[in-house]
Design goal:
The complex is a heterodimer of chains A (about 270) and B (about 325). With about 270 residues, chain A is of the alpha/beta class. Helix content of chain A is about 25%, strand content about 30%. In chain A, strand 8 and strand 9 form a beta hairpin. Chain B has about 325 residues and is α/β, with parallel strands linked by helices. Chain B is built from 9 helices and 18 strands. Classes of the chains: A alpha/beta (about 270), B alpha/beta (about 325). Chain B: Keywords: Electron transport, FAD, Flavoprotein, Transport.
């Protein structure tokens, strides 16, 4: 029996983001919220393991009430228990406060039965920090394997795992004793076939809601904005910096344009 | 004296160039704080790298040599770096925003219970408060945010490779070496490397002098073969936009942009790339940008030094011919 915890995040779909040019702030209206794509990989891994072994999947997320929809999606992947951490006091958390909140939640849940495997996305596409996974592992005092690209072997009896992970120089194969926290890179798993029975179950599923004052005895000083050492001082839209020479090939001959490029290459010492 | 620390990223006895870039920017920050720059080197049998660290501007080097550190593993590396920071209390700790640097930084910041800003592209000292101003892209590069960490030390950041230039190397420089003993055991490392498959051919996009990139306008895989031909002629590398990568025309290793690599070539070619902000975030530090696109409204033209409105293929083929002619003539 494998006891798996998956941590997910609902994010604005950054490919569709628009910025108010006057205020430089995000136009949230009309931006679809999606489950962070890397977290879907984590859910896919959990789903596959559940089919291969006997497994129990618990999925947690921290966010506003609407993040419930991501948890319902998790049920489609086979989640047995879904928990939404939602409270104004959690809001504005940076990665340190987030990892605190998630790790305390995990410790609380582990009182019943310890988890063998923790699955996180390699990063969330809104902040792109990749810091929460290693932060949670550090707080739980367990090994973290980031950028996992393949689970080569997992032995629930011997509690052993062998994982391939991407480094800058190649792929390294690591072995560790469970429990282990993996952050999932693209390619670790395809989205598996989701049976209709699970989709039906998801429609009816309701998450348990955890708040700042219960059931977990959080240290209030470590939550949300208050518990975040980093602060946003200023937000602005990046400016476009130059206005170069533009040649329209309907007006200028190709020869002339190529000559321009050749002279740039010479000037830069490339030719 | 306030210290600005740079984590010297080494694997297999080779220092990642981002560490030199960081020594350069750390020097500027240290001067503003009237402090000094220190490198932190962790590993096993890495003593001979100390000269490099000084040559690129460190005034002090903290060195931990231990066999458990023979290759990178999160737990012992994080423990060693955190212990050093607890003992010597740096004002600032910078790491490269590489896979290794990000892996390590997340653990160290948690151990030290301090703030960490990811993937920073600008660093400055606030003249009034002396705080580090860390600016980074967010939401896929659509906005920039300046982050501070006013009440916790060290102020930690991972910094994108290729944002800052590599400083001038000065062979004769040297400095103080502080060798630190830290107790580490194989058991507490908890993870063991049992195999390693080196990359067949490493795409050295980040440090290429010429990058020839293609986007959705290329229309397919075949387009990249053309770009490869041009790149080879110029001893450059092939880059790509996210859309081209997502379409499966070329592998992710080639992706330039917020979620890919940052490049800083002398010349950057953008063929059939519209220039979405997420792409620009990865190439706007190029010395010279040449963009070719059919759409005169493509945002790439706003940051191009030379923009050609026209068909990418016509230009690419003509350019390949012209370069061959040039080579023959000389």
């Amino acid at each position: 029996m494998l006891n798996i915890l998956v941590s997910i995040k609902q994010v604005p779909d950054t490919t569709n983001i628009r910025i108010n040019p006057e205020t430089g702030t995000l136009i949230r209206e009309g931006i679809p919220s999606i489950t962070n794509p890397y977290d879907l990989i984590a859910l896919s891994v959990a789903s596959k393991l559940k089919r291969e072994f006997k497994a129990k999947i618990t999925v947690i997320t921290m966010g506003p009430p609407q993040a419930k929809s991501s948890l319902k999606e998790a049920v489609e992947f086979g989640a047995d228990r879904i928990i939404l951490l939602s409270d104004r006091k959690f809001a504005g958390a940076d990665t340190l406060a987030t990892s605190y909140t998630l790790a305390e939640t995990i410790k609380y849940l582990q009182q019943e039965e310890p988890f063998d495997l923790f699955l996180f996305g390699k990063q969330a596409i809104d902040g792109d920090t990749a810091q929460v996974g290693p932060g949670v592992a550090t707080r739980l005092n367990i090994p973290v394997i980031t950028y996992a690209t393949k689970i080569e072997k997992i032995d629930p009896e011997k509690k052993l795992i062998r994982v391939a992970r991407k480094t800058e120089h190649g792929v390294e194969i690591l072995e560790a004793k469970l429990p282990v926290l993996l952050t999932c890179e693209k390619g670790l798993s395809e989205v598996p076939f989701l049976p209709f029975s699970e989709i039906l179950r998801a429609m009816k599923a309701e998450p348990e809601i955890f708040q700042a004052d219960g059931p977990i005895p959080f240290d209030r000083e470590k939550l949300g904005l208050k518990g975040s050492p980093t602060q946003v001082k200023r937000v602005f839209t990046p400016e476009l910096k130059k206005q170069g020479k533009i040649l329209n090939l309907h007006e200028v001959s190709l020869e002339k344009a190529i000559k321009e490029i050749i002279s740039v290459l010479k000037e830069k010492g490339i030719l | 004296m306030k210290e600005v620390w740079v984590y010297i990223e080494q694997e297999e006895g080779r220092i990642h160039p981002v560490s030199f870039e960081l020594l350069g920017v750390a020097k500027r920050l240290a001067q503003e704080l009237s402090g000094r720059v220190a490198g932190v080197l962790l590993g096993h049998l890495v003593d001979d790298l100390r000269g490099e660290v000084f040559a690129y501007g460190a005034e002090r080097l903290y060195l931990v040599d231990h066999e458990v550190l023979a290759y990178y593993r999160h737990i012992p590396y994080a423990k060693a770096l955190a212990e050093l920071a607890r003992k010597y209390r740096p004002e600032i700790l910078l790491l490269g925003a590489t896979p290794l640097g990000r892996d390590l930084a997340g653990g160290v910041a948690t151990l030290l219970e301090t703030g960490l800003t990811a993937d920073v592209t600008e660093l400055a000292i606030d003249k009034e408060t002396g705080h580090l101003l860390m600016t980074r892209p967010a939401y896929g590069g659509n906005i920039m945010a300046t982050i501070i960490c006013p009440n916790h030390r060290p102020q930690m950041a991972t910094v994108r490779p290729r944002i800052f230039p590599i400083p001038e190397r000065a062979e004769a420089r040297s400095g103080e070496v502080i060798k630190e003993e830290i107790s580490l055991t194989e058991e507490e490392a908890k993870v063991k490397r049992v195999g390693f498959i080196p990359k067949e051919k490493t795409v050295n996009l980040e440090y290429a002098e010429v990058v020839v990139s293609g986007g959705k306008g290329l229309g397919g895989k075949e387009g990249f073969a053309k770009l490869r031909e041009l790149a080879n002629l110029l001893k450059g590398e092939v880059g790509a936009s996210r859309l081209a990568v997502e379409a499966g025309w070329i592998s992710y290793e080639h992706q330039v942009g917020q979620t890919g690599k940052t490049v800083r070539p002398k010349v950057y070619f953008a063929f059939g790339i519209s220039g979405a902000i997420q792409h620009r975030a990865g190439m706007q530090n190029a010395d010279f940008v040449i963009a070719v696109n059919l759409d005169p409204e493509a945002p790439i033209f706003q940051i191009a030094d030379l923009g050609l409105i026209g068909d990418w293929k016509t230009v690419c083929e003509a350019l390949i011919e012209a370069i061959k002619q040039e080579r023959k003539a000389s």
